[in-house]
Write a structure and sequence with these properties.
Layout (H helix, E strand, L loop, with lengths): L7 E4 L1 H13 L5 E7 L18 E11 L5 E9 L7 E3 L1 E8 L3 E9 L5 E3 L9 E9 L18 H17 L10 H12 L1 H11 L2
Antiparallel strand pairs: 1-7, 2-3, 2-6, 3-4, 4-9, 5-8, 6-7
């Protein structure tokens, strides 16, 4: 009988080695991509041993990266029906990160086998996207939160956080060439800033 692993996010051995390497070099971690599959962990292996998905089915778009808790990085990614030829039950997922020596490595393996997510095909009359949240252990390593796909769908909560961050930045300092502000955020802020209600809010905010 195959070993049953609990649903959850598992730091792989390569991920653990990357943490030690980045801490020694005082470098940031860069998450590069995410994907889901319909496979199962091979007999005799555990989630931490995985170096790829057992049965890749679809890539995901990283829509948000944050560090709400010390030692952890929360990564949200989306899988769209338009990218799927045949519908499938997503029973596994993965997040990759960049190793300065080995290149891209599978950092966190996600077990979904006990509560798989149905991913519809592109020709299904009901289109949808599935959203997955992965908690990645990073220990004391700093996280590059800019690796977000500009084509991903931003939720209302994400927009509010990004707008608040931008307003705080513009109130305290003048952005320079070295200031990293995501292009998608700039586009959203430009639209927001042109709205009459937004201008009124900013005027009130500036009054002391």
């Amino acid at each position: 009988m195959p070993t049953i692993h609990e649903d959850g996010n598992y730091l792989t051995e390569k991920g653990r080695a990357l943490i030690a390497k980045l801490m020694a070099r005082k470098s940031e971690i860069q998450f590069t991509r995410a994907a889901v599959g319909a496979g199962a962990i091979p007999e005799g292996m555990s989630p931490k041993d995985m170096t790829d998905l057992a049965d890749w089915r679809a890539d995901g778009m990283i829509s948000d990266i944050s560090t709400p808790v010390p030692g952890e990085a929360q990564l949200v990614f989306q899988v769209f029906s338009r990218d799927v030829q045949v519908g499938f039950l997503a029973s596994e997922g993965a997040v990759w990160a960049l190793d300065p020596d080995e290149g891209e490595i599978l950092y966190t393996y996600i077990v979904l086998a006990n509560s798989p997510e149905w991913i519809r095909a592109a020709n299904d009359p009901v289109q949808k996207f599935a959203e997955f949240t992965c908690i990645n252990i990073v220990d004391a390593v700093k996280v590059d939160i800019t690796m977000v796909n500009p084509e991903a769908i931003a939720t209302l909560g994400m927009l509010k956080n990004r707008l608040e961050t931008f307003v705080e930045l513009s109130d305290t300092e003048v952005p320079t060439v070295g200031t990293r502000v995501h292009l998608r955020v700039l586009e959203q802020v430009e639209t927001w800033a042109d709205a009459p209600a937004a201008k009124s809010t900013r005027a009130k905010k500036g009054a002391k």
